What we know:
Blueprint (H helix, E strand, L loop, with lengths): L19 E2 L7 E4 L11 E7 L5 E6 L5 E6 L5 E4 L6 E7 L5 E6 L5 E6 L5 E4 L11 E7 L5 E6 L5 E6 L5 E4 L11 E4 L11 E6 L5 E6 L5 E5 L6 E7 L5 E6 L5 E6 L6 E4 L6 E2 L3 E2 L5 E6 L5 E6 L4 E5 L11 E7 L5 E6 L5 E6 L1
Parallel strand pairs: 1-27
Antiparallel strand pairs: 2-30, 3-4, 4-5, 5-6, 7-8, 8-9, 9-10, 11-12, 12-13, 13-14, 15-16, 16-17, 17-18, 19-20, 20-21, 21-22, 23-25, 24-25, 25-26, 26-27, 28-29, 29-30
Amino acid sequence: MKRISIVMCVVGVCIAFAAQVQTQQPHTIVKFNVRGAGNSAGQGTLGEGIVDGGSIVGVYVDSTNVYHGFLRSPNGHITKINIPGSQNTFPEGMNSALAIVGYYGDSGGVYHGFLRSPGGKLSVLDAPGAGTAAGQGTIVGDINTKGEIAGNYIDSNNVYHSFLRTVAGKFTKVDAPGAGTGSGQGTLTAGFSGLTDAGATAGDYIDANNTSHGFLRLPSGKFASPIDPTGSIGTFVIGVSLNKTVAGIYYDSTGAFHGFVRRASDGTITGFDVPNSAGTGANNIDPAGTIAGPYYDSIGAMHGYVRAPGGHFTTFNVPGAGTGGGQGTSANSSNSAGTITGNYVDSNGVNHGYVRQ
């Protein structure tokens, strides 16, 4: 599941890794809000993922704190996505054909996956073995250009399992080696960028000691795991690129958090921090290997960044973003044209969507 940043606490001081900041060029930033989004703290509009062509999928939180999905076209037209009878709707993945996957909660608190076709037809997806009690069920996070789907389910013992679903509807359970089998443990594939067109998946698994590690599963079914940067006490993968570069974040023993990339060719793991940051998050890696995320300053305010495959950083702030703790700009996704979407939090704690071109 993708980790979109709204509010995040910064603890400790981050290690500084060698990095270069790219000279910024003029960019156009377009702000947007979904009609019906709330305007109180924690509410509002969040752009979550962007595909080639510029279409954006995201969520908005209304005045009663209910979550709804939306699709924004390149020309700014917004289509709302709500599953009939759902309590909350969370789109998680989208492909270039604009097929969308995600999950929703029913009146009993059970999760169900969904697939929305490019034409708007909705289908419910429930993985075999998914539990049927509150807090259990199916969470769908990824769809590739072939229409293959990846996600996770929570069984009747509250254990997490990942799955792959073919276009024909066949489910294959995926459990990473070393994943725990107790409540709250198991395997989770990352959302939006956790599945490649070739069928590789990446995510986290929680072991029997409740420690999180990263994994990469190749299309052959072979695992490259665990993925743990040096000094990590908890590793969380946010996705995998077309060439199987894995990205994510990790926490060190002081509680500080850093970004990392794992090179596919030899498994080398490189930690990174945005220069002068007090904490570096990561939300998405695109097919070419560009990473988008927020970094945090000394008072906990967010600033957007993208990290090019070669390691160059570009940082930015959306005008109107707040400057206090838990406020600011988060970059959530980028596409091959370098267009970025995300959310910014204003001085009242309200979220707003944006696209940076």
